Amino acid sequence: MKKTILYILILLPFINFAQNDSLQKTITIDFKGYLKYMQTLSFQDIDGNWTTDNLIHNRLQFHSQIGNHLNFDVAMRNRIFYGETVNLLPQYPDFINQKQGFLNLSNIVFKSQSVFMHTAIDRLFLNYSFGKVEITIGRQRINWGQTFAFNPNDLFNSADFFDFDYEEKPGADAIRIQWYPSYTSKFDVVAQIDENKKLTTAALYRFNRWNTDIQFLGGLYKQHDYIVGAGFSGNLFKGGLRGELSYFHPEETWADTNGTIVASLAYDYTFSNSLMIQLEALYNGYGQSSGDFNLSQFYFMQISPQNLALAEWSYLFTASYPITPLMSFQFSSMYSPSNKAFYYGPSISYSLKENLDFSIFSQIFTSETTATNGGKGGFLFWRLKGSF
Amino acid sequence: MKRFQIIKVFLALCFISVQGLAKAQTPSAQEIVENADKLQRGISNRSEMTMKIIRPKWERSISMKTWSKGTAYSMTYITAPAKDKGQVFMKRDNEMWNWVPTISRMIKLPPSMMSQGWMGSDYSNDDILKESSIVVDYTHKIIGNENINGIACYKIELIPKDDATVVWGKVIKWISQENYWQIKTEYFDEDNELVRTEIASEIKTFGDRKLPSKVEIIPANKVGQKTVIEIISSEFNISIEDAFFSQQNMKRIH
Fold it and tell me: Are the CB atoms for B138 and B161 separated by under 8 Å?
């Protein structure tokens, strides 16, 4: 409740300002969102015990344009969890409610033995633009990624490839200034503060040359590592060739340590029959070059540009194809030679009505480690999504 | 800015004189096609339209706002369906970007991705991007005069030039004699088989001109299947700066 009042207080001055200024009296408000139901079946061994979980997931998104220069955006995620994991794991609500970012914008609305509701605001920002400059303050998504699954250049709000149900991906609490010197180039300066009150300050310059978007970036990551990086998106044989590289060097031990490289390279091609394939490779200097695969360690890891995968090398293949105009099939698989872990995930999506989709997703993990030691397991999901 | 306005006036004057000339004498096939093309294209344009895919058992539609300047620059903002709303596509010369506001991502689209259609629409990407020109890429011949839905039309045969990258073997257009509306078009493949028919109807006034507001695209040999494009609003020769077609503006248009 206190939060609601706070938001109203934030909003009010702008509404007044807009009404008083005859030049900028236009306020447009866009509202959209969705309601999803998803059931998850999880297992270590498909012939063994299955766990059933349910999720009712609602998203509300407001975008308002106040006059010609000001935007205000709020988006929230409301989720109701119930099922066996809620019953078995009393810590589950706390796990879901882990602090994301400096501002405390999430809350457990209610909680009982079998059900709980979590609500989180993942966008809350003001954007002011004048001429070629744009200033954004608040929780926003700052996307410096060029490749699709692993983004070493995304310093502020890394997203988990396996968390497919979070389509919008997290935001970052930051102050950001963007300046557009030309129609296809920009300077971007960001100061972000995270949940541990650690500051990341970085700048990026992106421009377009030789039919390619090219970017260079540098800064201080979470007050402990200097980072320089580069990325690009271009064409090769009419397909898209993209790459990112980040080099981290600890600030404290600058003289007597080596830096670490994280890099990804990706290629995508769409055939004339609409079959699309994507290939992506990740080199993670922080990863393990050998060792056993552990599914729960993998699944629950906190993704960051310094922790994009457990393994040193990962290879991803994705193919998607519309079987009929209403039905699309997607297959993705990942392999890490470092821990001999293999992932594959076929999925299918069907458009039932104009704004109603039915999907089945799967995620199967195998490795040389046995199921009882956590080396194997899988998830089956089915989901109904109504968009408005 | 000033120079642009001068060029605009100059081009508009050229256009009027060409039309005036065309009306005084019997126009050539080339002139008819040119006039019809200019009428639909304009130097710059802002439109709002809906495309409906109709199949025997289902229907889906997509709505959008578009802005264009010449053939080099265009911008498209998706207004429906709900899950795609807010996506923006921009084309500058031969490069294309997609702004996805939900994840705040600017994606550079490779040429192969442009071939992806939307829900099996009968409207090809060549149509959307208008990469081939009915004026430049074909030779034209008047092959008769016919009435289509009560409108007197020239029947014109368009044969692609040898060096043109055109997917059709032959195109026949029925262009109205009075207003240069493209009332009907038949597209044939290289074996001279009819592939699809386009029928334009519901003439409405859009700014300085009258145009058909509805185009039905009917693929041959596919019963109960068609794509219908309805133009809700359209303005031609608007003043629109090059700066409009920028990555900065992609994030702001709505």
Answer: yes
- Decide if B120 and A325 are in contact by the 8 Å CB cutoff: yes
Two tokens, residue A259: 């830096």
Summary mean pLDDT of chain A:
88
Q: What is the pLDDT of residues B148-182, one digit of tens each?
A: 888 899 999 999 888 877 778 899 999 999 889 99
CA distance to partner chain B, nearest, from residue A31 (Å): 10
- CA dist., res. B75 & res. B245, Å (int): 7
pLDDT of A216 > 70? The answer is yes
Q: Indicate if ipTM > 0.90.
A: no
Domains of chain A: 29-286 (2.40.160.100)
Name the region of B126 (left: φ>0; alpha: ψ -120 to 50; beta: rest): alpha
- On the question of a cis peptide bond just before residue B81, with omega within 30 degrees of 0, the verdict is yes
Q: Can you read off the two tokens belonging to residue B184?
A: 């009907």
Assess B86–A contact: CB distance below 8 Å, yes or no: yes
The answer to whether the beta carbons of residues A288 and A367 sit under 8 Å apart is no
Is residue B147 a contact partner of residue B177, using CB atoms and an 8 Å limit? no
Report the residue of chain A nearest B85, measured CA to CA.
Answer: A32
With vertex at residue A162, the alpha carbon angle to CA A358 and CA A114, rounded to the nearest 5 degrees, is 70
Is the separation of the CB atoms in A231 and A144 below 8 Å?
Answer: yes
Give the B window 221-250 contacts with A, CB below 8 Å: 242-243, 245-248
Residue range B32-61: mean pLDDT, rounded: 87
Which residues, at least 6 apart from A109, have a Cβ–Cβ distance to it below 8 Å?
Answer: A78, A116, A117, A118, A119
* CA pair distance A314, A291, nearest whole angstrom: 14
- Mean pLDDT over B193-198 rounds to 92
Domains of chain B in sequence order: 29-250 (2.50.20.10)
pTM score, whole prediction: 0.83
Among A14-18, A365-369, B58-62, the minimum mean pLDDT is found in A14-18
**pLDDT tens digits, residue range A291-333?**
777 877 777 788 889 888 888 899 999 999 988 888 999 999 9
At A83-100, the pLDDT tens digits run 999 998 899 999 899 888
Across B75-102, average pLDDT: 89
CA-to-CA distance for A150 and A286, rounded, in angstroms? 14
- Rounded Cα gap, residues A108 and A90, in angstroms: 13
Say whether residue B254 is in contact with chain A using an 8 A CB cutoff: yes
Task: Count helices and strands (H / E) in chain A.
Answer: 4, 19
- Which uninterrupted H or E stretch holds A316? strand A313-324
pLDDT at B128: 54
In angstroms, rounded to a whole number, what is the distance separating the alpha carbons of residues A331 and A319? 5
Predicted local confidence at residue B115, as pLDDT: 56
- The C-alpha torsion from B133 through B134 and B140 to B143, rounded to 10°, is 170
